[in-house]
Structures are given as C-alpha cells and as structure tokens.
C-alpha cells in the first residue's frame, strides 16, 4: 500500500486502487456504532469498551423488563451512543476548572450529588497545575456559580448528543434517551430537573448501566451493586435497580463484562442485524456526524474536519480522481482527527506552544485515529490514510516517520489539505495567517513535506473558487 515519489500522477500508487480489488464487507449498524463508541469512551476518560459494556448491562435489564421490540431497539442504540455529545463541553470544563477534561470527566462519574461530595470534588480538582491565586479564583467561581455551570455543561452535552443522533437518522426514542441521560429519579439531575416517570425509561436504564460499569471497573460486582442500591429512589427508578439485582444473580452477567469477546456478543444483539445493511449514503452521514463530535471538542477546531474534507476534495477533483474515489477520500478527511478525542483540552487549547511532554501527547493522535478506524470494517481501509496525515515526504513527520516511498496519493492529498486549513485558521497561540503567507510557507516545504502536484492542485482549485465567487458577486 505504498506509492513511488515521482512527479506524474499516474506513477503515484493509490491506496484506493488497492482497496478496490477487495472492497470491505458491508456491515450491520450495531457493529458500526459500537466500534465508533470506543472514540466516545476516550473523550469521556473511560477505559476502552465502556459503551459496549453499558450496552450489555442495559440490554440485560431491558430484556428482563419485557420491553417492546421498538423500546428495546431504541435502548440498544441509546446505550452505545449515550456519550455522543461528550466532546462539546470539554473546552468549557477546562476553561472553568483549569483542569484536564478527560480526568475530570472520569472522576466525576464516581461522584454522588451530596453537597460535601461536590464541594470536595471542586476544591481538589479545580486548577490542578495552576498557580495558587489562579486556582483560588477558579474554585470560588465554580462554587458560587456551581448550579448554573453544571446546568450549562449538561445541557450542552445532552442536547448536542441528541441533535447528532437525529442527524444519524436515529428515532425520537434514542434522541430522548440521550437528551435526558443525566436526569435523576428524584428531580435533582440535569439539565431540566424532571423526575420520576417524566424521565424516559431508556434514559434511566442507560444512566444505571453507566454507573454500574464505572463502579464495576473500579471495584468489582459488589461495589457496583452497592452503589446502584444506594442510588435507588434518588438517581434511579427502584424497579430498575430491583431488575438489575435479578439479572446480576446470573453468573454469566458479570463474567461477560470481563470477556474478551464481549464486543462480538454485543454486536450480535443488534436488533437490525438481519435487516438492511448500512449503505454508502448512511456511511457518509455517520462519518460527517462523528467529524462534528471531533470538531466540537475545541473552539479552535470548529468545522476543521469539514474544511479539510472540502480542500481534499478540491485537490482530488483537480487531479481528476473519479467520484467514488473522491467519496472514499472525503470520509478519510472527515475522520482523520478522531484520535484527538483522546487529547485533553488543556493541551489542545493551550495559549502557548506545547511543551515536550504535551507535544508527545499531540503526536499520538494519528495513532489513535488509525486504531479506532481499524476496528470498523467499513472504515478499516481509510485507517492508514487517517493515521498518516502528519507524515512528510522527507520522513520528518509523525507518528512513524514514514518517507515518500511509503506515502500514497491519498495521504499526500490529505496532508496538504490538513496543513492548509491549520495555517489559514486561528490557533490558541496565533491568529489565522493570510492566504499569501500560507502559500509561501507551504511552497517552501514542497518536496520536503508536501507533494508539489497536490500543492499546485490546491492553488488551482482555490483560484477557480475565487473566480467563481467574484463572478457570483458581480
């Protein structure tokens, strides 16, 4: 899957051409969503497989309750997608609490809602690594405005997640479950403080499954059941906790959570497994939706993936790539930064340039992108492209230091598109650069970092676009 570093397009071997020999199999929706849920686990600071384990726990409860077919379908997908909006409050958490959003979210999930627990949490977690006066100011602000801040954070997360689920074509039952995930039985949840039967049952099951998995991971079955029981009547419908006790007495219930094959078992529960497989249009929608999850993580990356997709497609069009090839490349562009969900916003939004340790974390994100996409049959063939978008022709890129002989056409296109957008957009440590400056910088690095043919295609495409815009405004 390599290409030769020559000057003519037809000599640049394409990864897509290799892929066309054996197209990846079509797959069921549950497998696709379940595999992508590992990306959501990262940005919630949870161990890999959290959403899949929650799906196992929650569907066991749903089966025991004798839920209708439609309700069970909605429960299954809601459990896998419960954290769809999780990236949208990451930057806000970092700004308010001056802390690592990944660790903050991880620790928050083991917190109850008692006053002293919240007080201790805010005091000990706010401003880790900041100066004393800065830490005190942030702590006081968090305590004084705690209720308002909490509501805003949950509202952003829950509504954003529900909106993305709608764009991914999931029905109202799934959307409502995601929107109301953090509501509590006693009315003290967030963001709307609804209570009792006002809360969609699927949402309360999903929250219960989340708590069970978090405490089971931390302390085993006894810890999980003790916490679920303690929160019965406050966080959870007591009937759901009673049903959990019933299903948990089956030895296989807990064993499954440690089973290396749990992912396969959960995907086999997919209610649409024998139905219509995911088609090409749906794959486009899902890729775009997850690009929004990635881009929502930082205000400095808002719409970055969509712009990279646009520039990559522009280059591909100028190079004469066929429509199916361009469609495939657009998905790679949309998902190239999915690994950034594993990077704290303390690093992504830092106003100064990253230090050596932070830079090492940043350099790991293409590896995470590749690992996530390799899990997914429908996106496995774009994983090498996404994982190499920071490599250079001279071998000085990252994470693997690949050189021109190992960089196929699609990687070369994506690299040019990605760097062009990075330079022409604002970053925490600098303003957006003028177009002429961007072209000058990238031109200096032609043949060392960037493929000259791709650079020229980008300039030609931008020129055509500028002409079209001028003509339409005349």
TrEMBL record:
The lineage's top-level taxon is Bacteria
The HD domain extends over 301-423
Q: Record keywords: Acetylation included?
A: no
Keyword Hydrolase among record annotations = yes
Q: What is its EC number?
A: 3.1.4.52
Give start and end of each HD-GYP domain.
279-474
Q: Which keywords does this chain's UniProt record carry?
A: Hydrolase
Q: What molecular function terms (GO) are annotated for this protein? A: cyclic-guanylate-specific phosphodiesterase activity
Top EC group = hydrolase
**Stored Gene3D superfamilies:** Hypothetical protein af1432
Q: What is this protein called?
A: Cyclic di-GMP phosphodiesterase response regulator RpfG
> Origin organism of this chain?
Roseisalinus antarcticus
Q: Which gene encodes it?
A: rpfG
């Amino acid at each position: 899957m390599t290409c030769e570093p020559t000057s003519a397009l037809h000599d640049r071997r394409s990864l897509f051409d290799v892929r066309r020999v054996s197209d990846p199999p079509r797959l069921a929706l549950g497998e696709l969503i379940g595999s992508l849920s590992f990306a959501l686990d990262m940005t919630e600071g949870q161990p890999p497989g959290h959403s899949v384990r929650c799906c196992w726990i929650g569907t066991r409860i749903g089966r025991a309750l004798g839920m209708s077919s439609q309700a069970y379908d909605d429960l299954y997908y809601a459990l896998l997608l419960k954290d769809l909006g999780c990236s949208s409050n990451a930057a806000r958490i970092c700004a308010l609490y001056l802390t690592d959003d990944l660790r903050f979210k991880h620790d928050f999930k083991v917190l109850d809602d008692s006053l002293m627990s919240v007080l201790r949490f805010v005091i000990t977690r706010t401003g880790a690594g900041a100066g004393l006066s800065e830490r005190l100011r942030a702590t006081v602000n968090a305590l004084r405005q705690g209720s308002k801040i909490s509501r805003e954070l949950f509202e952003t997360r829950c509504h954003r997640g529900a909106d993305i689920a709608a764009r991914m074509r999931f029905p109202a039952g799934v959307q409502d479950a995601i929107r109301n995930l953090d509501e509590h039985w006693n009315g003290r949840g967030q963001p709307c403080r609804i209570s009792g039967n006002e809360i969609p049952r699927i949402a309360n099951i999903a929250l219960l499954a989340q708590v069970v998995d978090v405490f089971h991971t931390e302390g085993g079955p006894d810890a999980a059941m003790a916490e679920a029981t303690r929160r019965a009547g406050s966080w959870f419908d007591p009937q759901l906790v009673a049903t959990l006790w019933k299903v948990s007495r089956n030895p296989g219930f807990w064993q499954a959570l440690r089973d290396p094959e749990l992912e396969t078992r959960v995907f086999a529960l997919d209610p649409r497994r024998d139905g219509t497989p995911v088609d090409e249009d749906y794959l486009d929608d899902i890729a775009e939706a997850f690009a929004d999850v990635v881009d929502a993580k930082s205000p400095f990356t808002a719409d970055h993936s969509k712009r990279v997709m646009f520039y990559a497609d522009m280059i591909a069009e100028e190079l004469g790539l066929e429509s199916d090839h361009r469609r495939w490349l657009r998905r790679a562009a949309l998902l190239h930064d999915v690994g950034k969900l594993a990077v704290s916003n303390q690093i992504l939004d830092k106003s100064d340039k990253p230090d050596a340790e932070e830079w090492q974390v940043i350099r790991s994100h293409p590896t995470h992108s590749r690992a996530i996409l390799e899990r997914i049959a429908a996106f496995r063939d774009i994983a090498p492209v996404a994982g190499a978008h920071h490599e250079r022709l001279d071998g000085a890129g990252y994470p693997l230091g690949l050189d021109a002989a190992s960089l196929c056409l699609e990687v070369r296109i994506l690299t040019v598109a990605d760097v062009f957008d990075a330079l022409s957009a604002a970053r925490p440590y600098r303003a957006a650069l003028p177009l002429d400056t961007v072209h000058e910088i990238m031109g200096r690095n032609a043949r060392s970092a960037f493929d000259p043919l791709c650079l020229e295609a980008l300039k030609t495409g931008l020129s055509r676009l500028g002409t079209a815009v001028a003509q339409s405004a005349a």
